[in-house]
Amino acid sequence: MNLKKSIEAFNEAKKYIPGGVDSPVRAFKSVGGTPPFIEKGEGAYIYDIDGNRYIDYVQSWGPLIFGHRDKDIEEAVIKAVKRGLSFGAPTLIETKLAKEIVELFESVDKIRFVNSGTEAVMSAIRVARGYTLKDDIIKFKGCYHGHSDSLLVQAGSGAATFGTPSSPGVPASLTNHTLLAEYNDIESVKRCFESSNNIACVIIEPIAGNMGLVPADEEFLKELRELCDKNETLLIFDEVMSGFRASLKGAQGITSVKPDMVTFGKVIGGGMPVGAFGGREEIMNRLSPEGDIYQAGTLSGNPVAMSAGFKAVRKLKENPSVYEDLERKAKKLMQGFKEAANERGISLQTEVRGSMFGFFFNSKPVKNFTDALSSDTDRFAVFHQEMLKRGVYLACSQFETGFISTAMDDKIIEETIQKAKEAMREVA
Ligand code: KE4
């Protein structure tokens, strides 16, 4: 694999951009090697500046469910661009996309668009705090909800439920309001509620995709719902990743549990920068200018981004059967990876939810972040590098999720499995 131009480009980028990247995970720190600089994408493939072609299982970390350069989305964007890039004024397309999402999600009466998942979660938490007049929040170890201060927390010492900053620059006074629980462990949530009677919301990825792919147990979500009701705490489902990826209704198409608020991102922008947060009318109407809770954004609801997202969501709603085919291919791929590993005496845990897939180099099932951390990340790194050399672009961390796009046919899945068999030889 010739990466000569990417190596030069990476060195050049590092002169002007910290780490040479605009988002840390892209630097390949946890898997090693030079991240290929991408020249273009077409369908299931991306091409780097050295001319190497890769089957893309990252799809910009989820948004590109139709693969690269989907003709319908591209056409919608070009049409929008020709009417102007941005107005900072209301446009019809914002209402159209809002309507599509509100009609799909029973738990969402109203929605507001922002420019990223981070902004969606940050805003949803402010609404929850303003609506309940409580300041504390509960999050789960291993769940990632973007990089706003209150959510950059790590476990405190010992049994302490209150978090401490996981990054310099986050004041402890802020993370003092964030309690940490263990995913799929209702007792740990009860301990948080015993530590504070001031909890505005619990935020959870109902299908966790940021510790690797770890779905929440149905029973756990039901008990979480009951605990929130009992304590008059709002339950926020962070579906930035799982929304429109786990099913047409995200995790809410799979679990019977209904949240009070939902955050969205990725697919709803069709590849353009869009996030959103929504919930019941009585909650969302508290938002300025209707209500008194402030939130704003220059490019929020940008008509070009809205046009991409609207076309993506419309295509999915017009053809919901894509999810069966995406899930079938995800299961086929994971079955192939598991067989490739087992042939070499390697233990691999695999998981699939709709078009999302994950695998852990681990001998035990992974139910929470502690389990995930016990995975063999060295083996993951070797596997990632060996697959990259063979033209397969997997998420560059054990603690991420992979995606199937509609641009991937069975031949591509079978080809990937064949390459996994070769790569596992090197892993062993
Ligand atoms: P953004 O601010 O990156 O658009 O969204 C933050 C976010 C919020 N909630 C969930 C469940 C998410 O998965 C994310 C972002 N996901 C990561 C990938 N695991 C983005 C990739 C990156 O950080 O570069």
Report what the structure shows.
β1 (38-42) and β2 (45-48) form a beta hairpin. The two termini are 21 Å apart. This protein has 2 domains: 4-69 and 321-427, Aspartate Aminotransferase, domain 1, CATH 3.90.1150.10; 71-318, Type I PLP-dependent aspartate aminotransferase-like (Major domain) (Aspartate Aminotransferase, domain 2, 3-Layer(aba) Sandwich). With 428 residues, the protein is α/β, with parallel strands linked by helices. The longest helix is centred in the C-terminal third of the chain and has 22 residues, at 322-343. The mean pLDDT is 97. The chain has helices at 4-16, 71-81, 92-104, 117-132, 172-175, 186-195, 218-230, 281-284, 303-318, 322-343, 369-373, 377-389, 410-427; strands at residues 38-42, 45-48, 53-56, 110-114, 136-140, 153-154, 164-165, 178-181, 199-204, 207-208, 214-215, 234-238, 261-264, 275-279, 349-353, 356-360, 392-393, 402-403. The protein is globular. 37% of the residues lie in helices and 16% in strands. It has a 7-stranded mixed β-sheet with strand order 4-14-13-12-9-5-8, sandwiched between helices. A 4-stranded mixed β-sheet has the order 1-2-3-17. Strands 15-16-18 form a 3-stranded antiparallel β-sheet, covered by helices on one side. The protein has 13 helices and 18 strands. It binds ligand KE4. Ligand KE4 is lined by residues 23, 25, 61, 116-118, 121, 144-146, 205, 209-210, 238, 240-241, 265, 275, 400.
